[in-house]
Every structure is written in structure tokens, then in C-alpha cells.
Amino acid sequence: MKKKIVVLISGSGSNLQRIIEAISNQEIQNAEISMVIADRECYGAKRAESAGIPFHKIKRGTDFCSQLEACLPPDTALIVLAGFLSLLSSDFCYNWRGKIINIHPSLLPKFGGKGMWGMHVHEAVKAAGDLETGATVHFVTPEVDAGEIILQGKVVVQPSDTPEDIAHKVHGVEYEIFPKAIEKLLKGWKE
Ligand code: GRF
Predict the structure, then answer these.
(1) Domains (range + CATH), the chain
(2) Which residues belong to any copy of the Formyl transferase N-terminal domain (predicted)?
(3) pLDDT digits (tens, 9 = 90+) for 45-93
(4) Residue 152 burial (CB count, 10 A)
(5) CA 161, chain centre distance (Å)
(6) Residue among 18, 171, 178 to mutate when testing ligand 1 (max atoms within 8 A of CB)
(7) 130: burial class by Cβ within 10 Å (0-12, 13-18, 19+)?
(8) 168 in catalytic set
(9) pTM strictly above 0.70
(10) What element of type H or E holds 151?
(11) What angle do CA 15, 150, 104 make, to 5 degrees?
């Protein structure tokens, strides 16, 4: 039986695309994306559609998590947040503990927490003058970006890099570590 992954998105979905590719070329073995869920209109929805993956949009708001809970297939092995911007409730995080992961575009615990998303992260790295940044795959807990770290990948920042250059490099390392982290978890890490 293939392990079922549900991917939550809010944006362009390039990490979703990478996961689709990693499943089809067996970097992630014996798995399938059973559903993609978005909390808003986004380009990632088109990627799910093109790949023939069942897609749902659930409107952002207070009852988001109860609707999400109702539409998640019960045999879901892993919930993957791939550029997903809504916060999940404490109850939801508890019910699915150890089965929800997120990718964050910095080397956590640096540049994490509320307000640290998208270009804000890369602008903060630039402002700090850091010459190294990267991406982190971690478990999701109710505290934003604070769950246990599963895998990190680093990139070098040149002093001349703009926040956009940094974002581009970080996306590159995300495409390397996200499939590896998913494969590692599906193989039973932490069971
Ligand atoms: C990634 O940089 C990820 O770290 C962050 O959101 C971005 C999503 O990019 N959580 P994409 O939609 O996968 O292109």
C-alpha cells in the first residue's frame, strides 16, 4: 500500500512540483499525494490539477482547521506544508502530532517565528549581514517554526547578493532537502 501524503499550499507551489517529481522518479518511494489543499487562490492549484491530484480549497478563517480535519483522508501518513501561510490550531497540531511537517526558508532557529515568511526572511538575513543561510524541514507544533528539526540545508550568501538572490539560492536547497526529509519520515524515522 502506498503511503498517502497531503500537501497544503498557499503560493506558487514549486516545492509541491518538486515533491510530485520526487515521487515519480522514486526519490520518495512507495508514496502518493492523495490530496492538495490550498487556503487561497494560488498557482500551486494549477500544478495539482495538471498532475491529476485531487484538489480542495478551504477558505482561510477560524473554522479552517475543522474543515481541514473533515476533508483529510483518514489514512493520511504525512501532512506536508509546502509554502502554506495559515496557522494551524493547537488542537489540529496535537491530533496530527509527528505527522505534520513544514519547510522554512532559513536555518531555524534563526529568522523564524511570526512575521518571518517569504521575502521578509531573506531581507532579514541580508540586513543581518549573514554570509550563510539555508532551509529547514521541521515538525509543526502550535508554536510557529519551533518544532523539532528534521533536516537542514545551507547556502553561502555573497555580500553582493540581494534578498532576491538569496531567495533563489534557498529555493534551490529546499528542492534538495524536502524530498529527502519526506522519504526519511515515510521510512519510519521517529517511529
Ligand atoms: C518556500 O520558500 C518555503 O520555504 C516557504 O514558502 C516558500 C514556498 O515556495 N515556506 P513555493 O510555493 O514552494 O514555490
Answers:
(1) 3-104+135-153+175-186 (3.40.50.170)
(2) 3-182
(3) 999 999 999 999 999 998 999 999 999 999 999 999 999 999 999 999 9
(4) 17
(5) 25
(6) 171
(7) middle
(8) no
(9) yes
(10) strand 149-156
(11) 45
Of 164, 148, 166, 146, which Cα lies nearest the Cα of 156? 166
Binding site per annotation, positions? 13-15, 60, 102
Measured by CA distance, the residue closest to atom 8 of ligand 1 is: 83
Contact 17, 53 (CB under 8 A): no
Å from CA of 15 to ligand 1 middle: 6
Report residue 80 as a C-alpha cell. 506536508
d(CA 191, CA 185): 9
CA of 2 to the centre of ligand 1 (A): 26
For residue 55 the three cell numbers come to 484538489
CB 160 within 8 A of CB 177: no
Q: What is the largest CA-CA distance in the chain?
A: 49
